[in-house]
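tmp note - Glycoside hydrolase family 32 protein
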Amino acid sequence: MTSLNATSALDCRYRPKWHYAAERNWLNDPNGLVYSNGVYHLFYQHNPFADVWGNMSWGHATSPDLLTWDEQPVAIPCDEQEAIFSGSAVVDFRNTSGFGVGGVPPLVAVYTSAYAPASPLAGRQAQSLAYSTDDGATWTKYAGNPVLDRASADFRDPKVFWYDGDAGSYWVMVAVEAENREVVLYKSADLKSWEYLSTFGPANATGGVWECPDLFELPVDGDAGNTRWVLVVNLNPGGIAGGSAGQYFLGTFDGVTFRSETTVTEGMQTDDSRMPDYGWLDWGRDYYAAVSFSNAPGGRRLMIGWMNNWQYAASTPSQGWRSAMSLVREVRLETRAGHPALVQAAVDPFEAAGTELFAAGPEQLADGVRWLPAEASGDVLRIDAVFRPGSAGKVGLVLRAGEADGVQERTVLAYSALSGELSLDRSGSGNAGFHADFPSVERVPVSLDASGLLRLRIFLDRCSVEVFAQDGLVTLTDLIFPTESSTAVGLLAEGDGAALVSLSVTAG
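out:
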């Protein structure tokens, strides 16, 4: 364990309003997402001592509503024997683990022990337990750790859930052999002793190591009699936009084996030619390690991701703190184009706390940029727009526009009728020169609906853009670092023939 002093001066220019960031120091993958007794618990990879990666421990924050978060003390700290890598947490309602006291179900964290040189298991990654009998306030490591050791250097990121089906009732662990691009499944009656079930992969995107898997069942179109299982596999690098990303497979799970119905390429990926055909959680650069909450009320499947990319995560321009989480997203399966597809909707901070600043439409759009009035500007906004691209070459929005030291700043979200692609261009978004991989243009194929419409919901925070297109069928998430004064919003059209059906700008 390396002890470093936290930076005394915090640079908060880019600290988001609605995205969780630790008060100080480094943050990456979300861990241990669980709901218990009216509280959502967000644990995460955290360096308690510096704003760079290292000393991996589980940070902790709590929320009553998934919007406002209170930072708690470090939950599971690293020590001389092990770093505390990613994992999950469950409410052990049946006290199968025996950790519960006085009839109160314990919270049990299942995490990866990354064993340090001082450990007899140095160099290995194995799965371990910690438990809490005070609803997550304090945690105790299980004396019998590790509970699952494959003598591997890259066996990590366990996601655990309770399975109840034809094969029986038991805990299932979904973890990865990262370098092999394999998801490995185990079962247990008590969270302590584990039995191998099956292996999935390699398949689809394998351009980087596989990490942070998740497996859950969802109804299609809300029909409990028609379900699919969703297997999420994050990978780094090898993402659709470059660097880190998350992919997903749809299929079946019989309690033993996951069988994919959406595999495009089997085995190790030979080239990038089929990349757009894979299932991607997000087509931007900055949505990684996304996993879902255990025990979410109402049967909702709620996910959150790390809003960064390993290509440049250590270089992003904030001092004293680094990185934030995405907005929480509810994911569902809906039939689109005749097939089940994953759709996502953000838990919306503007729904209760927002104030509409500006509304417009319907109207034709002239060639060029029409700037919205000053009252429609801001650095924390939700923008809802519906366009009819028609015969125009491009149509969209200019975001966070302004001028800094004589240089124009703008982030451009545009739909090309010619290519059928939605693009997010942050190459001129502001401070983009801190790393060579940061200036970028992300692109995703988007089909207009049967009426020829493009529907967009955009969440702007002080250092991020999250785009939900076609009612959440496609998402694009990117970091941006504009000057604080760059807050203007404009409507964009290239050529004639486009129409704005409706526009609403909301502050919150």
